[in-house]
Amino acid sequence: MKKGVLLVNLGSPDSPEPADVKTYLGEFLMDERVIDVPLWARTLLVKGIILNTRPKASAAAYKKIWWDEGSPLIVISERLQKGIQEKTELPIALAMRYGSMTIKKGLQELVDKGVEEVFLVPLYPQFAMATTETIVVLAEEIRKEFFPHLKITDLKAFYNREDYITVLSNSIERHLKNRPYEHLLFSYHGVPERHIRKRDITKSHCKMDGSCCITPSPAHEFCYRHQCLEVTRLVAEKLNLKPGTYSSSFQSRLGFDPWLTPATDLTIERLGKQGVKNMAIATPAFVSDCLETLEEIAMEGEEIFHEMGGKEFTTIPCLNDDEEWVSLVSDWIHDWANSETVTA
Ligand SMILES: C=CC1=C(C)c2cc3[nH]c(cc4nc(cc5[nH]c(cc1n2)c(C)c5CCC(=O)O)C(CCC(=O)O)=C4C)c(C)c3C=C
Ligand SMILES: [Fe+2]
Ligand SMILES: [Fe+2]
Questions:
Q1: What pTM did the predictor assign?
Q2: Which terminus of the chain faces fewer neighbouring Cβ atoms within 10 Å, N or C?
Q3: Do residues 11 and 134 share a domain?
């Protein structure tokens, strides 16, 4: 059977204009795995409130980070795709969960090349309803409806794989070389606390008090919070970071429900107030730089830090098209292709 790969990232609006941002946010926020309330409440919240207020401000933010070639997240994902394609004969397609580069188009592209077995690669290190799950579920719905003959295997969250932690640690270390810092903050995209409890397969593990995520549990296979904290722990171990010189936080809170804490903006503020002069920040929930890293962290975060008296604020780029990262994803693809051949 001919094999191929579909890389899937989050997506971006077609342009940073309010109308395109509105269309994109409409699709994104109407996803029941992103805003997980009943349809009537989601419609009221998204179409009645958010889409009437947010697109203008979001468009202004997108304009600040937009590149001549397009959305950074898309351009960077395309570079990753190209880098991987140079290392393999298998067709590598790229799709986005939201926006015009749909998963259906990506699967069609592979099918047009004769592919019958697809390795689906959600470009997220950690599992969440709003990341891996929504991609895998939609891909399966599309497969059933349009490509019933296709076989799809998905790459699981890779947050604790030794090879991934090595590549991430090397990248962080490289960017911090000759840049002394007092505190390294690992900032992850936040989710509402409710999302974590909903995916607690034991129904009793998740306490949300900070203790559960360090107690081994089968619940951690689907615990976004555990998986984020584990990335910090493993990188800190690899880089020999001293306790007290690093911490984790969660960014991009939306709405009034309780989200994961501590919040990144408040953490940056606290560090500045405590007299930290040089800080660095890594964002390992994202594999590609995007609005949330280039604007919210590198611009807004830096501004908060300076207002609090901080001086050097180093934003560490995401893995993007880092050579070691491209090689690592290519290796995972080869492992999949070869193991399937062996068991077939
Ligand atoms: C890294 C994983 C992500 C999770 C988990 C996630 C959850 C989540 N996001 C929102 C709302 C918004 N997110 C927005 C942008 C955005 N989110 C992610 C990733 C995750 N989101 C990325 C990579 C981006 C950037 C996209 C880009 O084009 O660069 C936005 C739009 C921007 C804005 O208006 O601020 C919103 C809104 C919710 C509600 C949520 C809940 C689980
Ligand atoms: Fe988001
Ligand atoms: Fe937990």
A1: 0.96
A2: C
A3: yes
